[in-house]
Amino acid sequence: MKLSCATIIIISCIMLRSIDAKCPKGWSLHGGSCYIFETTPQDYRESRNRCKEMGGDLPILRSVEAQNFVQEIAKQHDENTWIGLDSTESVRSFNLDFTWIDRTYPVFDYWAEGQPGSSDRPKCVQICKHHSWKWTAFPCYSTSSFVCQKPEE
Which residues contact 7 (CB under 8 A, 6 or more apart)? Predict the structure, then answer.
């Protein structure tokens, strides 16, 4: 069997891609993390649990680039999308600050106009299509699609 140069190059690229794969099949690599979009709507807690089952958690967006990447994933699916930002721990301590799931504070924000608002109840954050794909606080029992993030392998 005689193979053309183009065929050999394509086969080589496929083989190198599988050797260099840093994310499981179906996950996308960006900035040292792997991401996957989950379409089955879940509340915030259930979303986190599902991500943990896959070895990750909801995304912590420490840069504008990470924000833009996850925002584009949400746009591609045209769905509101949970991210790992909430006020659940701070409400318990009577502080209404939003923190990432690792309890660090955001270094930038991307709130929609009028957000996050005020509440004495825990709120969790989605990238919301009805607010120009910006951060919007919702009750944590609301259901939404979500993105999971985990370190590259």
Answer: none
How far, in Å, CA of 139 to CA of 53, rounded?
A: 23
By C-alpha distance, which of 140, 33, 23 is closest to 82?
Answer: 140
DSSP bridge pairs for 111: 135
pLDDT digits (tens, 9 = 90+) for 19-78: 347 999 999 999 999 999 999 999 999 999 999 999 999 999 999 999 999 999 999 999
Rounded Cα gap, residues 98 and 149, in angstroms? 19
Alpha-carbon span 33 to 125, nearest angstrom: 20
Give the span between the Cα atoms of 65 and 39, in whole angstroms: 23
How far apart (Å, rounded) are the C-alpha atoms in residues 81 and 94? 27
| Residue 33, H or E segment | strand 33-42
pTM of the entire predicted model: 0.81
Overall average pLDDT of the 81-102 stretch: 78
What DSSP letter does each residue of 72-102 carry, written as one string? HHHHHHT--EEEEEE-HHHHHTT----EETT
What's the chain's Rg over C-alpha atoms?
Answer: 18
